[in-house]
Amino acid sequence: MAVSEWKLPTRREEEAVGKYLEEERNFMAAENYYVNDHAVQIRRYAVQLVTKFSQGNTDDAFVFYLAMNYFDRYVSRHGLPNNQGTEEDTIQWLVVCCITIASKMRRKSFTVDSFLADKHLEIPLQRIMEGELLILNALEWRMRPITPICYLDHYYPKFVALGGLSRRCINEIIVQSQGELSFTRARPSEIALSSLVAAATILYPGQASSINDTFPDPPCLHDMINLCHKKNIQILRLGGQSAEQSEESETANSRRKGKAPETEIVPAYEDIPKKQMNFPIRWVTDTDGEVNLPPLEDQGGSQSQDPPTSEVNSDGNTGGATFCGCPCNCNCNLLEGLSGCCNIL
């Protein structure tokens, strides 16, 4: 069981890390966007909505992580769309569209109708399709972002000698960090390393200092350790042993050997096992107050273009044989929910 949690990166995957490092900032919120007080309030409101819509869906937290990535990238570069009612309505509409796109990337069986019904949302299907197209075009159809997940297999071998870490708990640290404003300023590679170092520091106190000989402390390490305690994330070693159990264990450390099969070097998020993402989103707690947005006329920053219109059939699909738009002309029909878009970087 433990062996399957991590895989040794292939040479091709190691070479891809360099490309990820060059491109990763393009998949973050625009630099210095969330220093504006109103922008911060918009994000807090979006985080509350994503958390709300995630309730009852604990089988795949990565859907909501992706949705928030799309929201950050869109709003920080294009602002809120015009003519969508109140600011709260506009943010909810964008959040819902980000979630539906992310769901289509992860679940081939996903349907917008079922999601709207399950969440008791009365948003016309055509508006959802228009919002999806607006977001997809604005993000240039780059819907498989470079995230901290891309770096985990690259960094993890340095932590094996300590005794190993549960992949699921590292995933949870990364996903829960998405709800915190401070981490929008950190690069995905920094978050990945911070999540591993934070877990090792908690699980193997006194031993994790040896990691400093290989990696300098990432800038957001202190915040990441605090996040683990704040969200009460249970840090486990390989095989499911907790930090408390680890302190009592005298089991010798082991290192997994062997060669992993060749895989694509691009992020293939549909291949992440859902059993490694089956935890609730805990971005908002009961002690967090509701976000009250200032009147729209008081907000700073620009507003984006009006959303496009599209032909939508009675069954919810767009008119025509395909509705792709990918630069690679893959005819993936992302908007129809048939499969994830293949345009990665």
Q: Rg to the nearest angstrom?
A: 21 Å
Instruction: Kindly report the average pLDDT value.
Output: 80
What is the terminal-to-terminal distance? 32 Å
Number of strands: 0
Q: Which regions contain 5 or more consecutive residues with pLDDT less than 50?
A: 245-265, 296-302, 309-329, 336-345
The amount of beta strand, in percent, is under 5%
- Global outline: globular
Helical/strand content category: mainly alpha
Largest sheet: none
Question: What count of domains describes the coordinates?
Answer: 2
According to CATH, the fold-level topology of the largest domain is Cyclin A, domain 1
Word description of this protein:
The chain has 345 residues and is mostly helical. The chain has two domains: 32-145 and 290-336, Cyclin-like (Cyclin A, domain 1, Orthogonal Bundle); 148-266. Helices cover 39% and strands 0% of the residues. It is built from eleven helices and no strands. It is globular. The two termini are 32 Å apart. Residues 245-265, 296-302, 309-329 and 336-345 have low confidence and may be disordered.
Question: Which terms would index this structure?
Answer:
0% strand; 11 helices; Cyclin A, domain 1; 345 residues; 2 domains
Describe the secondary-structure layout.
Blueprint: H1 11-23, H2 37-54, H3 62-78, H4 87-106, H5 112-118, H6 125-138, H7 152-155, H8 167-177, H9 188-203, H10 221-230, H11 243-248
Quick recap:
The protein has 2 domains: 32-145 and 290-336, Cyclin-like (Cyclin A, domain 1); 148-266. It has 11 helices and no strands. The protein has helices at 11-23, 37-54, 62-78, 87-106, 112-118, 125-138, 152-155, 167-177, 188-203, 221-230, 243-248.
